[in-house]
C-alpha cells in the first residue's frame, strides 16, 4: 500500500527521486502513465495487469473505452529505478501535466501519483473542503 506525501524536484535531465518507502514496493520495473485529475500515475506491473483485466471486460465498441485505453496506453512507459532511486519522466508526460521542477509524490493506496506542486496544492485545497461530505456519501458504498 502506498501512503504519504513527499516533495521532490525534477532535475535538469527530467529525473525524479522516488521516495524510498515507495521503491520497496515497486520492485524492478513499473508503469508510468498519464493519470486522472492532472497527475502522472505509477502502477506496479501487477496492478497494471489487474487494471487491464478489468478494462478488457469493457466493450471496445464504446467510444469512451477506446479513448480511455488509447490515452492510457499511448502515454505509458515502462520504467526502472536507477541506482539513486530516480526515474526518468518522459518529456511528453511532464508536459501533459505541467511538471517543470517542483513535484509532489503522493501515495494513493494501490498506485503512486506525481503532481506539479501548484496543481496538487490547488487540488488538495479544493478536495479538503468537501472531505466530510465525500466520506459520508462513499460510506454507503463501503458497507
| Order of SSEs | EEHEEHHEEHEEHH
The averaged pLDDT comes out at 93
Q: Gap between N and C termini, in Å?
A: 21 Å
| Helix percentage | 40-55%
How many strands, what sense, and barrel or not for the largest sheet? 6 strands, antiparallel
Structural write-up:
- With 143 residues, this protein is an alpha+beta fold.
- The chain contains 6 helices and 8 strands, in the order E-E-H-E-E-H-H-E-E-H-E-E-H-H.
- The chain has helices at 20-26, 45-55, 63-74, 91-96, 117-129, 131-142; strands at 5-9, 15-17, 29-34, 40-44, 77-80, 86-88, 102-107, 112-116.
- The strands form 2 sheets. The protein has a 6-stranded antiparallel β-sheet. The protein has a two-stranded antiparallel ribbon with strand order 2-6.
- The mean pLDDT is 93.
